[in-house]
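Why does residue order matter? Because the sequence determines the fold. Keep that principle in mind as you read this record.
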Amino acid sequence: MLRPRPVADGSLPRPFTSAAALMSGLAAQAEELDVSEDEKETFAQRGRAPEAVFSSTLSEPLDWQNTTLVSTDAAEAVRAMKEEATSPLVLSGSLSLGHSLMRAGLVDRFRVVLFPVITGRTGLERIWEQFEDFSLELLASRTFEGGLQLLEYAPTHLERPPGTAWDRGAADGS
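Structure:
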């Protein structure tokens, strides 16, 4: 279980306020987590990796180690980062940023994590509702203990919704 760790000024952060805070907490507590040694090392590596936080409301200095604030156009910043990167870039936690980067054609792989939970009446938020249509080509999958699954796809923006007459006509060659 994650416990809040003090930030630079000694105060406690609000738990899970952002993906960066969540991943920072996982990295800081990697040795204490009830996961495999490989997964502990993955979290620890993530904690050592440089990160960028895209925000128009935050200001420096940030409370997270190895973190740079980006307040300029996200698509332009990511395009530049991809040109300079020596390893894959990873986005976690921001649906709106992910959507804008997918629209800009900057996402090479799209990962979905399925949790074996049905939220029923409590699952009121439809998180993909604001996305345009994308086809997803399955590239890889992995199942973890407890049934959690990681699915990795290559996204392709669709000009028209799937299942339309245009889509069916293109499939049968007409």
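Confidence is low (pLDDT under 50) at residues 1-18.
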